[in-house]
Amino acid sequence: MPRTITITKENLIDASVSLLKREGQAALTARKLAKEAGCSTQPIFRAYQNMEELYADVFGVAAKIFSDHCASYPNDSNVPFVNLGLAYISFAQNNKELFRLLFLSDNRYGRSLVELLNGETDFLKAQISLAKEQGCKDPQGLFMKMWMLIHGSACMSLTDDYDLDIYATRSLLEDAERVFA
């Protein structure tokens, strides 16, 4: 009679994300994952052909966590790219290791930056549409200028060099949009 599989892919993904959040991408090894999941390495390689296949699934879950964060973030500014900026910076501040995986690693597992920012709700697309509706002649150009400020701010938060609160951040982004538009 075959053994019952007690460690599923879902268990391994949950353990991987937990380990990743706590210790970072470099800690996501078969041995550390096995310890986190409470098993040997055998169930990992029964579920996955190799660690790269697991990493791709973990990346997908991290992208979903980011998408859910953006979708649930308060959408209370009518200034283009401010909501995107606030959600993105907040995600970096509260999910440093997931942020590093999604936005600072070399491998995005076939996803572009635009796909990640759009998520499941077309978050970026909605911001570009808002800019168009408000008469912006070059919404993509405005996004690129705003993106440099948004991404730079988020990266500064990883090293605790970003100390603006949400109100100061909102003001900064609104001022930048007026200057760049």
In short:
This protein is an all-alpha fold. It is 69% helix and 0% strand. The longest helix is centred in the middle third of the chain and has 22 residues, at 51-72.
Describe the structure.
The chain has 181 residues and is mainly α. The chain folds into two domains: 1-48, Homeodomain-like (Arc Repressor Mutant, subunit A); 62-180. It is built from ten helices and no strands. Helix 1 packs across helix 2, helix 4 (51-72) crosses helix 6 (96-103) and helix 5 (82-94) runs parallel beside helix 9 (139-158). The longest helix has 22 residues, at 51-72. It is elongated and about 60 Å long. The protein starts with 8 loop residues before the first helix and ends with a helix. The relative contact order is 0.12. The mean pLDDT is 95.
- Number of helix segments? 10
> What is the assembly state of the chains in this entry?
single chain
Q: How far from one another are the termini?
A: 68 Å
Globally, the shape reads: elongated
Rg, Å, rounded? 19 Å
For the structure shown, list the relevant keywords:
181 residues; mainly alpha; Arc Repressor Mutant, subunit A; 69% helix; elongated
